[in-house]
Amino acid sequence: MTSGMEDIVAADSAITWIDGTHGELRYRGYPIEELAENLSFEAVAYLLWNGELPGREELDRLRHELDEVRVARADVINQVRQVPATAHPLDVLRVVVSSDATTNPLTWDNTTDANRRKAIEFTAWFPTVVAAQHRLAAGQEPLLPTPGLDTAAAFLTMLYGHDPSPQQVRTLDTSLILHADHELNASTFAARVTIATQSNLHAAIASALGTLSGPRHGGASERVVAMLEEIGTPDNAESWTISRLTQKQRIMGFGHRVYRTVDPRSRQLRAMAERLLQGTPHQPWIAILDVVAEVMQREKNLYPNVDLYAALVNHELGVQPAFYSAVFAISRITGWTAHAMEQLDGRMIRPTAQYIGPSLRHVPESVGV
Ligand SMILES: CC(C)(COP(=O)(O)OP(=O)(O)OC[C@H]1O[C@@H](n2cnc3c(N)ncnc32)[C@H](O)[C@@H]1OP(=O)(O)O)[C@@H](O)C(=O)NCCC(=O)NCCS
Q1: Active site residue 256
Q2: How high is the pLDDT of residue 3?
Q3: For the chain, how many structural domains are there in total?
Q4: Fewest beta carbons less than 10 Å away: which of 113, 191, 325, 354?
């Protein structure tokens, strides 16, 4: 079996640094903890796209542009209405991205200015698409974006149909920062492979969305709540975990290709989830996951990854499980676009395969169509 490209260096990148042994993560040199504590998602998006933190004026300009595009592109709601509300939300985002590719005058313009503009456009309207489908799936009418709001507040307002609390906005904002980039994860790699052919940003993002949807990537988070409901109480958690491992089943939200210790984002999200769940009927979920985590570490040396506690945070924000990876995409679109723009200057990505098929043989004359 091949390595799944483990430890292969497939790109030079100045965007994200990970130390998987010590559980450290930095965007453009800044520790994720400092970014999550002190910045807004918009400031982090600026950092990922431009390499430096924004000044006040630059940040205001980006916020204004995102807001302006979000309000101007409310037409994406019509496209969400055209597809079944029961479709997977990442498939719906992919439909809207591909549809936009057919009409956006900048689609095939790979200049830096055009790609920056498209990165802002995706980041502006992804929340509208996800919120619209979430409401349609619940039998509610989609809502137009409210002008003057940043990404987290705009999304929650469209989702709820009323103002979110400042705590809800800050919670989502922090979660968006934590999910914004993660080096050459599978979906980012897919985006880089796609744009390395000199295709375009829309094609790269469609590839990334498809890749994110699998249960070994963003799709893991969607399955965490069902797992918690199945376990039920902390007392059941150890035997449940052991029985799953004995059956060689994977436990969602655990394990990582790069981290050999706790994923630093998971540490932050666990603290956020613990605060949110306190005093709610779901408070025991933290204790359940603590037991599962202890068994996973003891039996398999595997640790919680970003998807585990993100599921709890999304749940407490009122997001339906099927939409967790789409909320992930609302954030990761910043990392995908930053990487795709960086890759444009690089070589085409074209690895080789070790051939394990039959050796030379010839079509018999008797076989013909
Ligand atoms: C993320 C993930 C795909 C990375 O895995 P990877 O580096 O490719 O490692 P492999 O899939 O080769 O797994 C290596 C071993 O660990 C086991 N393993 C990995 N993650 C596991 C999990 N979550 N539960 C149980 N066993 C797991 C595999 O079964 C395999 O065991 P084996 O050697 O006995 O066959 C993997 O940990 C996983 O499937 N996790 C669950 C899904 C998830 O949470 N994804 C979100 C990632 S952020």
Answers
A1: yes
A2: 85
A3: 2
A4: 354
